[in-house]
Amino acid sequence: MLTLANDSLRVELLDPADAADRTRLGTRYCWGGYVWQVHDSAGPLLAGPEWPVDRPTAFNGQGLPESFRHAEFGTGRPVILQDRRGFIIGIGDVAPNMAGELAVTTPCTWSLTTAADAIEFCTAQSGNGHACQLTRRIALTGRTLASSTRLTNTGNGPLPLHWFAHPFFALTDRLITCDLPAGWGMDENVGYEVDAAHRLSFKRRFLHRDDGHFEPLRIGPGPLRVALSHPTLTGLIFTTDFIPDFCPVWGNSNTWSIEPYLQTELAPGATRAWTLQYEFGPPR
């Protein structure tokens, strides 16, 4: 694995060129810039759907993965792929395997630029009449981790951009609280509730990894900024520098996630850049 570290935090990232790390990767999450875990003096700070299993399935993963979807959310309409063949942004060329499951046939080739406080991953892809250049930069400053993405359409036609983040936050006794921005909320549902102070909480403890709930948020007027409880920290703040196009939450007995989406299209030559930021509060 690749590592960023300072006096406060140690960040582990999957290395897309490492054979051992590739066994943790698949067709769901972007290979470059995949934050697998963040540690401080109290231990690991992030979780996952199968947490604390050491080797979760590639589909479930753990940490702070991000994903460029190969199918439109809700409709299942293919994005870039044709007859389930083509490329997935940030992963590589894919096709059905002998079992009929989508599999990576040729992974992306990444160039890495490393510094004391950041690692940058760059790749270029083309296929099915589309082409793009992707840069992912993970930077650590004090107790703040920033994940920045820059995608450029280098092809001659429109490039679908269907991306989402899937951070896996840690629970305290299978529960979490999340302070939402003013103007954000959710409809009545069986999994979560939001009080008058915009604080989201679980209605019950989920019993196991297959017991959970997925619920879309009502998106307010500004970018996402949430303050979350944490079992070993005074808190954790997660922010985006954009207003999501869609933003569900999901949780089970092992983890909880808030998932900002971007759903748009890039014209030829156009670039879209965005950043996520995680501020890890001090240990209790």
Structure report:
The chain has a ten-stranded antiparallel sheet with strand order 9-10-11-12-23-19-18-14-16-15, with no helix packed on it. Strand 10 and strand 11 (130-141) form a beta hairpin. The protein is built from one helix and 23 strands. It has one helix at residues 19-22, and strands spanning 2-5, 10-13, 35-40, 43-44, 66-68, 86-88, 92-96, 102-107, 111-114, 118-127, 130-141, 144-153, 159-165, 177-179, 192-194, 199-202, 213-216, 225-228, 236-240, 248-251, 256-258, 261-266, 271-280. The model has no long low-confidence stretch (mean pLDDT 97). The chain is globular and about 50 Å long. The two termini are 28 Å apart. The protein has a single domain, classed as Beta-galactosidase, Chain A, domain 5 (Distorted Sandwich). Helices cover 1% and strands 43% of the residues. The protein is an all-beta fold and 284 residues long.
